[in-house]
Amino acid sequence: MHNLTLRFTRYFAFRFSMLLIVGASIGFCHGHSVQAATKFAATADQKHFPIKKSWGTISALPLGLELKLSDSESPKSVTIPRMNNRVKTIYLSGDTARKPLTLKPGIEEWEILLPQSLTPPVTVIVEFKEAPTLPVKPSVISETADQQIVLDAKDAVVHGTLLRYEPQPHKNTVGYWANENDWCEWKLDLKTPGVFDVYLLQGCGRGQGGSEVQVSVNDQKLKFTVEETGHFQNFKERHIGKLKINQTGVQSLQVRPVTKAKNAVMDVRQIRLVRQ
């Protein structure tokens, strides 16, 4: 990410109105602006919880969140911060059938729809596939022992007006890519330079293929054409080419549309860089 310090400063100045309350206020720095403010991710520890909301309290679980609605509120829905987590299921505590509640992921917050007959106080359980992760500071992905850098959708930093991470099990993707000016990036930490095969796990609806997209790291660029897969959540892994990364340390892999062919660009679930 270029000029990281300056972007942090501008970002906090614009979005510091969103606060995490833990005795004192903690800056919630995963906001969104038309000016493409950066969103960050870092593993949350218990000091970031509980989070107080108008309807009650959000507490952390080992693999999820517990939402306690107070008896003074009867909302039709509740919102939680955008998490860097894959959602497994959401249900009412005490519901033995664990009937899933509907999740509507926004850019900054996720909305959970509640049953109309609900009478607080109640508790909602949000189950994740990993420990809860709040957007607090950059998530930096390192190369694995088998010489791969795996960039998952949940760790993407999105920029623009519509693009977002969709955490539902059938999605788990960077989606809503209807604005061709929106783009995303991942931060990676490279110990040694090298040439990498680039694999993209992408989906694209019927009749929506053909957009041209650029993947870049620093001054190295790779272009490919989005392939129609029959559905935006029908993902296909493609080898789209090679990237030579000459620098070491923390840097940014960016994905930007060059042209949008139809209504939306694509969905992206994962990018893999495999060292040659």
TrEMBL record:
Residues 171-273 form the DUF5077 domain. It comes from the Bacteria. This is DUF5077 domain-containing protein. It comes from Gimesia fumaroli.
